[in-house]
Design brief:
Layout lengths: L6 E5 L11 H10 L3 E5 L4 H4 L9 E5 L13 E5 L1 H15 L5 H33 L4 E5 L9 H7 L6 E6 L3 H10 L4 E2 L9 E3 L11 H6 L6 E5 L5 H15 L1
Parallel strand pairs: 1-2, 2-3, 7-8
Antiparallel strand pairs: 3-4, 5-6, 6-9, 8-9
Length: about 250
């Protein structure tokens, strides 16, 4: 905290290595100084984590991800109290005009109808894949909040209703091994997106976090052998088989 701190803004779980932030604890610290708490809840989805009852003031989503769920359109969501929306946000919204098109709004509303079913499937498959990867000799470390070996597993049990649809891991070796693994995948598609019906794979060091220095990435736990998976709706047995043959190619 600094004397001029007005807001805390954070995501939990974090991209890409799924660290957790204690929403309730941070909210208590912030509110003592009359600061707002803004939570990016994309990785947890609205089904697994509800920041507002935990003390957050504002919650935001990239609705392009799980809310749409099929990579069809762009959109975003800002949630807060009626007072904040009416007194603070509405005028900004009216003046700057970040409005969804009617078609995009319709697509996202249709996506919400199946969100609980899709997230259940995403999470069940993600948990199975995290366990599968943890047993592979080519894998150095697995990051998944639903596993008991996650350093913040107890916090996950406290503030999340599941381990989530995302899995991160480190393949043994360096960037060449990571690239060999990704290029050998068949079902998983290389993309920076997430939350799709299709399973996706990302190399954060050269995409989402490539603007950071190697030292800054290392401080965040992101290395050249770090890989992020967004688990889709395919049969989990097919996904495991795809990962298995790609790990063999990464050796």
């Amino acid at each position: 905290m600094r004397p001029n701190t007005k807001a805390f803004f954070f995501e939990t779980p974090t991209n890409p290595v799924l660290e957790l932030v204690d929403i309730e604890a941070v909210s208590k610290i912030a509110h003592k100084a009359n600061a707002l708490v803004v939570v990016d809840n994309v990785f947890a989805t609205p089904m697994l984590q509800r920041p507002l009852p935990l003390g957050a003031d504002i919650v935001c989503y990239s609705a392009t991800k799980h809310i749409d769920g099929q990579g069809r359109c762009l959109g975003g969501v800002v949630l807060s109290s009626k007072a904040f929306i009416d007194e603070k946000f509405h005028n900004y919204f009216k003046q700057t005009g970040p409005s969804l098109s009617p078609f995009n709004a319709w697509v996202l509303l249709k996506g919400l109808e199946t969100l609980p079913l899709r997230v259940d499937r995403h999470c069940a498959s993600a948990a199975a894949i995290a366990d599968f990867l943890a047993d592979q000799p080519e894998v150095q470390r697995v990051f998944y909040p639903g596993r008991s070996d996650h350093p913040q597993h107890q916090l996950a049990l406290k503030q999340m209703d599941g381990g989530g649809p995302m899995v991160a891991f480190e393949v043994k070796g360096d960037k060449k091994n990571a690239f060999r693994f990704m290029n050998a995948l068949s079902i998983f598609k290389i993309s920076n997106n997430l939350g799709d019906a299709k399973s996706l794979v990302t190399h954060p060091a050269t995409t989402t976090h490539q603007r950071l220095s190697p030292e800054a990435r290392a401080e965040l736990g992101i290395f050249d052998n770090t890989i992020r998976l967004s688990i889709g709706l395919e049969d989990v047995r097919d996904l495991k088989a795809d990962l298995d043959q790609a790990l063999a190619a990464a050796r």
